[in-house]
Amino acid sequence: MGAIKTLIIGSGGMLGTDLCKVFPDAVKLAHRELDITNREQVLESIQRIKPDIVINAAAYTDVDGCEDNRDLAFQVNGYGPGYIAEACSKIGATLVHFSTDYVFDGSRNEYIESDTPDPINVYGKSKLLGEQKIAENTADYRIIRISWLFGIHGRNFVETMLKLSSQMDKVKVVNDQFGKPTYTVDLANKIKDIIELETGIYHLTNDGVCSWYEFASAVIDNAVPCTSEEFPRKAKRPKYSVLVNTKTEPMRHWKEALKAYMKERNK
Ligand SMILES: NC(=O)c1ccc[n+]([C@@H]2O[C@H](COP(=O)([O-])OP(=O)(O)OC[C@H]3O[C@@H](n4cnc5c(N)ncnc54)[C@H](OP(=O)(O)O)[C@@H]3O)[C@@H](O)[C@H]2O)c1
């Protein structure tokens, strides 16, 4: 049997770039090379490349932007993954796709993989449609729900805090939304293990729960807590969208992962 051929879609994004390091021999397609909203292009590319595994890291991730650009959100996060799944099914490839804690409404304490999603913003609804379209179009998928990503190769909360901290005396950060920060490198390194598991939905995050304020306080020393009401955003955010992983080994605590991130960024 020949070597396993992997295709990474959305290879230019924050997670996509770290996935490329874990899968150096993969065929990589960035946004300019493949638009996942173009069904014909998706089918043609995947049928031509004939990968054994397709990892889709492409998405429209601007949560507030999704409220204004609803159609684009549903095309990229909903229908696009469905086209990729259709193409994977045609050639017998395994699809690895990323979804989000924002498919849940955040009214409960914790969510396991089998809990019923009920998103409260357009981003969450569009990502849930993506999960549904994948399950409709292929039987061989790993949908990995992740949360609060930080990685070297993208705009992320840690960098935003460092920037604001250098510009302001005090940085107000919401202390009533809770989640699990997750380092893109840790996530990328786990994908090979998940591929070996059975088809289905997985929750995968670094260990440990915190509020955005607690997360900020681990990065900067001038964060001050505030409520979501004091910091209105276009999209509603779930209050407590904590993903519980019941299917795989837990990953290290987010504080350990943050240390590794800081070391890497300061190199
Ligand atoms: N960031 C988080 O906190 C977070 C939390 C939970 C789940 N996730 C999920 O994790 C995955 C990776 O997120 P990320 O933070 O790495 O995202 P990201 O940095 O925004 O990267 C997404 C990539 O997708 C590309 N893209 C956008 N529209 C596309 C299209 N129509 N066709 C092809 N490519 C397209 C973007 O290209 P352009 O830049 O050129 O548009 C970008 O390179 C996504 O599925 C996201 O929903 C992220």
Characterise the protein shown here.
By secondary structure, the protein is α/β, with parallel strands linked by helices. The chain has a domain at 6-150 and 180-206 and 241-251: Rossmann fold. Helix content is 40%, strand content 18%. It has helices at residues 14-22, 39-49, 63-68, 70-91, 122-137, 157-167, 184-196, 212-217, 254-265, and strands spanning 6-9, 27-29, 53-56, 94-100, 110-111, 141-146, 149-150, 171-174, 178-179, 182-183, 200-203, 210-211, 223-226, 242-243. Strand 1 (6-9), helix 1 and strand 2 form a beta-alpha-beta unit. Helix 1 crosses helix 7 (184-196). The longest helix is centred in the first third of the chain and has 22 residues, at 70-91. The model has no long low-confidence stretch (mean pLDDT 97). The structure holds NADP nicotinamide-adenine-dinucleotide phosphate (NAP). Residues 10, 12-16, 31, 34-37, 57-61, 76, 80, 98, 100, 127, 146-149, 154 line the site of NADP nicotinamide-adenine-dinucleotide phosphate (NAP).
How much strand? 15-25%
State the share of residues found in helices, binned by percent: 25-40%
Q: What is the CATH fold-level name of the domain at 6-150 and 180-206 and 241-251?
A: Rossmann fold
The CATH level-2 architecture of the domain at 6-150 and 180-206 and 241-251 is identified as 3-Layer(aba) Sandwich
Spans where pLDDT lies below 50 across 5 or more residues:
none
What's the total helix number? 9
Whole-number mean pLDDT: 97
Shape category? globular
**In the CATH hierarchy, what is the superfamily of the domain at 6-150 and 180-206 and 241-251?**
NAD(P)-binding Rossmann-like Domain
Helix-strand string: EHEHEHHEEHEEHEEEHEEHEEH
Q: List cofactors, ions and other ligands.
A: NADP nicotinamide-adenine-dinucleotide phosphate
Overall number of strands: 14
Given helix and strand content, the structural type is alpha/beta
Radius of gyration: 18 Å
Major sheet characteristics = 6 strands, parallel
Overall CATH class of the domain at 6-150 and 180-206 and 241-251: Alpha Beta
